[in-house]
Amino acid sequence: MFRRRPAEPLERATVPWLLASAVATTAPHVEHQPHWLMAIAGAMLLLGCWLWFSRRGLPPRWLLSLIVVGGSTAIWFEYRTLFGRDAGVALLILFMALKPLEMRSRRDAMVVVMLGLFLLLTHYFYSQSIPTGLWLIASCTLLTATLIRIFGGAQAPAVIVRHAAILLLQATPFMLILFLLFPRINGPLWGLPQDAHSSRSGLPETIEPGTVSNLVLDGSIAFRARFDETPPATPLLYWRGPVMDEFDGRAWRAIRAGNLPLHTPRVEARGTPLAYEITLESHQQRWLLALDAPLTLPSGAVLTARLQAFSREPVRQRSRFAFTATTDYRFGRDDPPAMIDAMRQLPRQGNPQARALAEGWRQKHASPTAIVAEALQYFRRENFVYTLQPPLLGNAPIDQFLFETRSGFCEHYASAFVFLMRAAGIPARVVAGYQGGEVNPVDGFVVVRQSDAHAWAEVWSAESGWQRVDPTAAIAPSRVEAGIATALPAGEPLPALARIDLDWLRQFRYRWEAINNRWNQWVLGYNPDRQRELLRDLGLGEIDWRGMTALLATLSGVLLLAITIWALWRRPPQDAALRLWLAFCARLARSGLPRHSWEGPQDYAARVARERPALADAVRAAADAYVAARYAAPQPRALEQLAATLKLATRQLH
Amino acid sequence: MPLAAALRTWLFRLRRDESLPIVLGQRRIFILPTATGYLFAVVLVVMLLGAINYTLSLGHALVFLLAGLGLVAMVHTFRNLLGLSISPGRAEPVHAGEIARFPLHLGNTRSDARRALGFSFDANAEVFADVAAMGETRIEVPCQAIQRGRLDPGRLTLTSRYPLGFFRAWSYPFPLFTCLVYPRILMRPLPPPTAVDDAGEARGDAGHEDFAGLRAHTPSDPPRHVAWKSVARSVDAWPLLVKHFAGGGGEELWLDWALLAGEADDETRLSVLTGWVLAAEQAQLAYGLALPGLRLPPATGAAHHDRCLEALALFGNDPDVPPPAR
Asked: Roughly how many angstroms between the first and final C-alpha of chain B, as a whole number?
């Protein structure tokens, strides 16, 4: 039935399409791949264009093999592997750039198209945003158009692209059905290579001068929260991240979990519980940034001894977590003494001035509460400055900060405050997280950005347990009340986009972020849970993967059948002129002059003229116009003329 | 084997199409994925595994869009053939060893163009045609003519991989096609004319008075008699022609089977006769053709030429002409 075909030569005019496909599918990788690779790829593609344009022969195969071996070696040196995600993408780019230099047959062209499809998928490793989606739709159209050009011969490029777009539009219903109903599996299917999730941003695991302020310049979104009711006031929004309770003289870090007693703090709720859901961007850490203090946790999360909500696995992709919390609470009164003891520890040496200051406070006040108040008063009184650009600190950072530079960012204040408290004998620790957030009026989500990153302190007393103390609020109260932008003095580097005053721009940003959020929630975050939820909402009840597959197959079948029927449906081969004429004859028949089936237009007109002389001219004109439109040599406007004449004649029938 | 053949005949409707034009219905269009289509499917599966493994929601969407594209392409490939009307035309006769070209008129009553329709006869080169929306086009499908006689090229194979090349739709239109194939041409000098019996005179080639036409050159002809003008008109005219003067006696040029008794076989004889017919026609001589059981009296003109060649083409295998007695 099939005979083996010889390799079909490639039409010269298809090469620009293939080159364009190669460029479209590789270009966005400029952002993520080493520049030398993209330079080589660009050079190869340019060479391909030039060889095509100047009608030169393709380079010899040994040269291409040499480049492949050289390029692969270089990629190995870059990534130390050829199989990881990034290295794999790099290899694909190399092949894609070289393939146009050995395009001889149609089979080579197919390799380019298939490589292109693969490369399309690889873009999603790095970004699944709406612009990426749009770019990929355009690239996909280009690849389809390339196939149409190869298999359909020469046509105007606009016609080919339009045809490709139509095919993709017709494919869209299938995509929707499959997207919604294809039984989703939570990946990964096999172990992910180490570089699968390389992008890591978010809160640091240690706090030292500069760690938070670096983050503040990043305007990207850390997470979004949707409250079932009105969100609490901004000064109450403290989202807890890593808690640091060990100081090494410069940096604060968390004591290893094994060195703390196993314990779950008890939260005494005094306010109403608030239900909310967090959509957390991937940050490669286990902390979930729950609002203080959490009452219930999502399944799969645990509460640590430091009141942090932790997931079992690092958050490797955007995920949703549902919590309830209350902002009026008490916790940690029954924390084990060994743990409280650890929160008083300081290094033996260092920062003597600060120790002396704290010792003075301890002798002056009997109650811890008074010491805390004294410390905050100290910050307020002594002209401390809140700034993103503090001077660098040397070997005794706390002393230097408290008595020399007196300018710093939240991590300076939190760290100095906790140091003073511990020196005064009060259990205290540094908490990092986010503070505040911005309600997007378009969709009502509270948007928390990296620039909302914050560090504060907690002190412990037997009566009230752990209590939050935010020394930054003492120096720059507006930081807590209205956000970072208002708290910083003018002239500081702008935390990206935080200080937008232009109202329309702010509105636009709200809208854009609301669209993005919806995209994230429903398109990117469409996982097995969402799928189950959606099917339940559609009234399909709980259906398992078998049911879904059956539904999927049925719907796809119906759709395919509909498209097939559309394709098979054949209009009767009746031309427009005949249709118009028959309608006119029917109209005449109703006024008592039916056309006999054997009568031609001219005979019929002659008979009508005999029987109704009044209509003679109109009917003759109609018959002439019909004959001209149907039988004469094709003329550009014959059909319109016929329609006009018939309309005129019909009017005379009344 | 006969069962398989019968099955094939039934499945692929390998029967002559009686009514014309042939309009392709869905029952006689077949479709299967191509190698490219299978490759595409494999690529999609791998992409889907990647999308699942890395939890790429848009990756899922891309794979599903492409899967939909594959299904849509299948319908479109099928539709490219569906409803196409094919009317065979008359094929011009050729000589054995040449390529016969069978004309087809393709009609499209749909408001979309049909593109890249490939037509071929078994083992012959494929030719491609596009038919514009509501348009018609003509295409000539080649078929190697090996033997003289009536060439039946068998069924046509019509294939299309348009638009994306993932599927190959094909059909076997089987119109009544025929092309007359003349024997191969062997060029030999024309035989000398023969005297006409009933004129009652001697052989007339001795005459020098009346110009009586042209004939092929023989070594004994004086150079004065070579028809240089005729030679100049068609450079590749061969053999050389000489003016033939009749001395008043009637004589006729008979291209006679019997003159070639020394040839190896019948086909060679037919080929030589064919060459003679062409040479005589070129020289505008009146000639007659004598075959066993058939005598076409001397005449000139295209109709005579065609009749002679047809007789040669069908010699021995046409029921109208009895085979030569050997």
From this structure: 39
Find the domain containing A98 and state its range.
12-153
- Sequence-distant (≥ 6) Cβ neighbours of residue A433 within 8 angstroms: A203, A238, A239, A240, A241, A242, A289, A453, A454, A455, A456
| pLDDT value at A172 more than 90 | yes
Which sequence positions of A are flagged as catalytic? Answer: 410, 454, 470
Contacts of B191 (CB under 8 A, 6+ apart): B253, B254, B255, B256, B259, B276
What per-residue confidence (pLDDT) applies to A1? 39
Higher pLDDT, A212 or A280: A280
Crossing angle for the helix pair B266-282 and B302-314, nearest 10 degrees?
Answer: 170
Tens-place pLDDT, residues A95-133: 999 998 888 888 899 999 999 999 999 998 888 888 888
**What is the tens place of the pLDDT at every residue in B155-192?**
889 999 988 999 999 998 888 888 999 999 988 888 88
Residue at a domain's end among A101, A134, A153? A153
**b/e sequence A119-133, b meaning 16+ C-beta within 10 Å:** bbbbbbbbbbeeeeb
Does residue A20 lie within any of the structural domains?
yes
Written as one letter, the residue type at A426 is: I
Q: Which amino acid is at A405?
A: T
Phi, psi of A441 (to 5 degrees): -65, -20
Q: Decide if B58 and A133 are in contact by the 8 Å CB cutoff.
A: yes
Residue B135's pLDDT is: 81
Angle, CA of A369, A373 and A376, to the nearest 5°: 140
A24–chain B nearest CA distance, Å: 16
Strand partners, B215: B242
The two structure tokens encoding residue A561: 């059948």
A608-614: list long-range contacts, CB under 8 Å, 24+ apart.
A614/A652
Final residue before a domain boundary, out of A126, A153, A180: A153
Please tell me whether the overall predicted TM-score, pTM, comes out greater than 0.90 for this model: no
| In the predicted structure, residue B326 carries a pLDDT above the cut 50 | no
As a whole number of Å, the end-to-end CA separation of chain A is 65
The whole-angstrom distance between B98's CA and the closest CA on chain A is 23
A299: which DSSP letter?
T
Contacts of B65 in chain A (CB under 8 A): 140, 168, 171-172, 174-175
User: Tens of pLDDT along A10-47?
Assistant: 888 899 999 999 999 999 888 888 899 999 999 999 99
Residue A209 domain flag: no
Judge: B76–A567 Cβ closer than 8 Å, yes or no. Answer: yes
Of B40, B72, B78, the CB nearest to A167: B72
Would you say residue A448 lies in a domain?
A: no
Residue A128 has its nearest CB partner, among B46, B56, B162, at B56
Q: Parse chain B into domains and list their residue ranges.
A: 9-181, 194-314
Of A174, A184, A523, the CB nearest to B68: A174
Which candidate from B57, B109, B116 shows the least CB-CB separation from A573?
Answer: B109
A89 touches chain B (CB under 8 A): no
Residues in chain B: 326
Instruction: Give the A window 134-153 contacts with B, CB below 8 Å.
Output: 136, 140, 144, 147-148, 150-153
Inside any domain, residue A335? no
Structure tokens at B103: 């004309």
Q: Determine the average pLDDT of the residues in A66-95.
A: 87
Judged by CB atoms closer than 8 Å, whether chains meet at A189 and B49 is answered as yes
Rounded distance between C-alpha atoms, residue A219 and residue A281, angstroms: 13
Q: Say how many domains are in chain A.
A: 2
- Name the phi and psi angles at B37, rounded to 5: -65, -45
Q: Which of residues 33-72 of B touch A (CB under 8 A)?
A: 36, 39-40, 43, 46-47, 49-69, 71-72
Rounded average pLDDT over A459-485: 82
State the pLDDT at residue B207.
Answer: 47
